[in-house]
Amino acid sequence: MMIAGFCEPDSGTITVGDRDVTRLAPQKRNLGFVFQQYLLFPHMTVSENVAFPLTLRGVPKDEIRRRVGETLEIAGLSGFGNRKPRELSGGQQQRVALCRALVYRPPVILMDEPLGALDKKLRDQLQVEIKSIQQELGLTVIYVTHDQEEALVMSDRIAVMRNGLIEQFDTPRELFERPRTPFVADFLGAANFLPGRIEQHTDEHTLVRLDSSGGLIKARRHDLVSGTEVKVAVQPGRLRACAADDGFCTGTVETATYVGTLVRAGVRIDGDAPLLRLEVPAGRGPVTGERVGITVDADDVSLFPTEQGG
Q1: Total structural domains within the chain
Q2: Rg for the chain (alpha carbons), in Å?
Q3: Among 134, 156, 178, which residue terminates a domain?
Q4: Distance CA 177, CA 235 (A)
Q5: Global confidence as pTM
Q6: Looking at residue 146, what DSSP letter applies?
Q7: What is the pLDDT, as a whole number, of residue 190?
């Protein structure tokens, strides 16, 4: 809302390139917008909808025709110019909305959950298409989404926000593999959290004694002092089932759900502990009632001081 110009920040500035737009009216910022609702004019053809921003700007008709044609081609809609929005599928309508934002080549495009109304298969397809168009044209896109997978797939950098503040601003890989707060770890991957205490450090690892099972788990080297109470965070996809008593803890499989290429398992580890969530390849998934050990690579374990909170 602040970048678009619909509300003013309490402090600081908003710049697009070297241009300070903090106090400019929305229509003077020259930004593109794509919303969850397509907001196409039903009485206009596809070409007329895409041309609308250029018409408002007084662009000559020949130039409008050329730029509309180029933009529709980029989005794979070359043969749809004379159709009305009602003749298009949801994905096609959203591509028209994207073309309308692209046609005047704004320096920044704001997208507010543009794929939220589409089914998963189409959403996955359009994620790839939008990313491809963004890279081809060299655009800056600020994309709002509550879908963690979508954020990881589409972004070069992600800002994870909480209560109006940025918890972490980083690449998708860094956010997922090196979260700086428990909130980021949980938000991006629904991490497992186990309480424990730093036992000792080696040259390569930090060893943590788990409160629940009493087992030792290795984490990547941390500068926390021995005796510090910590939360151990591990993503479900990084845990592995092994022979009972061979891992950092042992437990019983309470749930095992087949979801295509994966089995999502819930393991009740021995001791007073929450259910551990695992995501393992379907061909090697554990079965309900099986006794298993749990193991994980030290590089996939994050530690947070208990006082850091959520």
Answers
A1: 2
A2: 25
A3: 156
A4: 9
A5: 0.81
A6: S
A7: 84
